[in-house]
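R.M. (postdoc): so does anyone remember the format we settled on? I'll just put the structure tokens first.
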């Protein structure tokens, strides 16, 4: 089972990337590929840029990565209550190749932030809009106060309640394949 996981952000030490990778590691025998959105950096999308450049190969590469996945795990970083510019840009370019960006791939949507809100606002927005992009969201979970609940050295979720909730969310994703 091929799992693509990424943090919807371009931070080098992204806490969402850490969370997405950890969630993927809970799937037994998964072939996990963790994407870094920095590898898909393109000019800021506009229709004028599109007319000038056409469809960048990096947008096609991102779309093709999703095509290869049996399951997707995305953890959303929140910037001012919304998507990071890095994710939104990759998404906008990719949506011009095919609006159904998620290609009906079973997905787990997560979010986290250092604060108590856990980036729940952007997560709700991502979950709510997923059907427009043929997103098959099996479960979603926001992890608040990342640094209180996740040990970045050991790369594990240390809060037992949240660990249980994450395991349950991951099972909803993997039940699809049993
Ligand atoms: C411009 C900016 C805006 C932010 N806005 C929010 C916000 O609205 N809600 C929130 O929970 N955290 C916010 N944060 C803090 C991020 O949650 C924090 O930087 C986090 O590490 C981002 O996730 P990442 O490490 O995966 O990129 C903001 C950070 C920046 C730089």
């Amino acid at each position: 089972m091929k799992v693509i996981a990424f943090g919807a952000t371009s931070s080098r030490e992204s806490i969402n990337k850490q969370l997405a990778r950890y969630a993927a590691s809970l799937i037994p025998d998964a072939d996990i590929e963790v994407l870094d959105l920095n590898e898909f950096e393109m000019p800021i999308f506009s229709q004028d840029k599109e007319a000038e450049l056409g469809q960048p190969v990096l947008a096609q590469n991102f779309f093709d990565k999703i095509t290869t996945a049996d399951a997707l795990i995305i953890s959303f970083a929140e910037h001012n209550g919304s998507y990071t510019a890095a994710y939104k840009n990759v998404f906008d370019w990719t949506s011009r190749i095919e609006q159904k960006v998620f290609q009906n791939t079973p997905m787990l949507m997560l979010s986290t932030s250092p604060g108590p809100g856990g980036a729940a606002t952007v997560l709700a927005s991502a979950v709510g809009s997923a059907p427009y992009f043929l997103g098959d969201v099996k479960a979603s979970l926001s992890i608040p106060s990342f640094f209180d609940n996740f040990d970045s050295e050991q790369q594990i979720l240390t809060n037992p309640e949240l660990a249980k909730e994450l395991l349950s969310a991951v099972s909803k994703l993997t039940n699809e394949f049993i």
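R.M.: ...and that's the designed sequence above, right after the tokens. Also worth knowing: Residues 7, 9, 11, 14-16, 77-81, 113-115, 117, 119 surround flavin mononucleotide (CB under 6 Å). The mean pLDDT is 97.
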